[in-house]
Prior knowledge:
By secondary structure, the chain is α+β, with helices and mostly antiparallel strands. The protein contains twelve helices and five strands. One of its GO terms (cellular component) is membrane.
Amino acid sequence: MEEVTRQWGPPWREDRRIGRFQRRRWAHPGSGVVAGFFHVIGANNAAGEAGVFRPLTGWVYALLLVGPFALLWRKRFPVTVFVVAVAASIGFATFAAPRWSYAVAPAIALFNLARMGRPWPAVIGAGASYLAYFAICWAFADHLGVPVGARPGPREAVFLAVTPIVLIFLGGASKVRSEHMVEMLKVRAERERAKKEQERRQASEERLRMARELHDVLGHHLSLINVQAGVGLHLMDKQPEQAREALTAIKTASAEALREVRAVLDVMRAENESAPRQPALGLNRLEELTADAGLPITTKVTGDDRPLPPEVDRAAYRIIQEALTNVRKHAGPGATASIAVDYLPTALHLAIRNEGPDAAEAGSDPGEGTGIAGMRERAQSLGGSVEAGPVDGGFLVSVLLPTPDDGSLS
């Protein structure tokens, strides 16, 4: 797993390729080529102007190219490369007139040292190099046999004092910029991950909502069809007219189920459409719901009947629908139900009670995640609650759904 992470890690992580794509052991040769070009061309120009006091033999050119060649390892050994480049340039400077072109490799090495976050080695190295150069080519020039033309003057002293300061500053600024870019990449990647996680979570919630809606629709109507089919089979031979009524009820329930399934799918396909294709489900269809329930139901509405938030209205309808489905499935023949809807000032209270031979079992549901559990989940998603349990001679489902006026549920 670690190897996979390294290979396909984010762009700011080093060594994100393995095998032959692993990070190179040396830096890009471009800087070394540029430095070598300036060193050789500068030496040739100086020689043409009698600024070099020794013949440009092979070992002299080798001395000129030591620093540029060492730059290939500046990423792995920044301090060592800087020391080597400075030593080679000072060695050549002992028999050549002072020129900036001999110091390109040390300048690149010093910039690299600061850019890699080594400010103190850069400062100390620059100061030590400055002192060493002037000690060799000025203070001890006579003892070391340095030609007079190779000795730096005041102008060179000022230039060599200011240039390292500028290089260290630019290297540090480059490091800060690189770190800022890395941080920006991390933030961008984190935002992308958060966005994908949010999309994944929304998709998961949408699937759960669709499953819950389809369960409510199909569970209600299929249980009604099951009851009516049993009645039809029982009365088919003895009372064909009543069997016909049962078949008519089955046809009506199946048509209603198909219509509601289409409504759910339409909502899922076009969640943001301004007008739904099917009438919204809510307590305004409570009378229709109880009429199709297939058992005697009494309904009582109290309080200030008012428009509810769409999500509360739909949840109330679905919870009542699921409660009636449970009554049909578990309460047995002869069961009756009552529905009480109470509009409180800041909430909606529902009470669905049933009585029958097996009323105490009306709240149970063998399917995990359905029945009362589904009602409770739907209510809790809106900040409400569901209480269910047996009461004297029956089973009661009590629901409380908040109805804030500030639209905080949406």
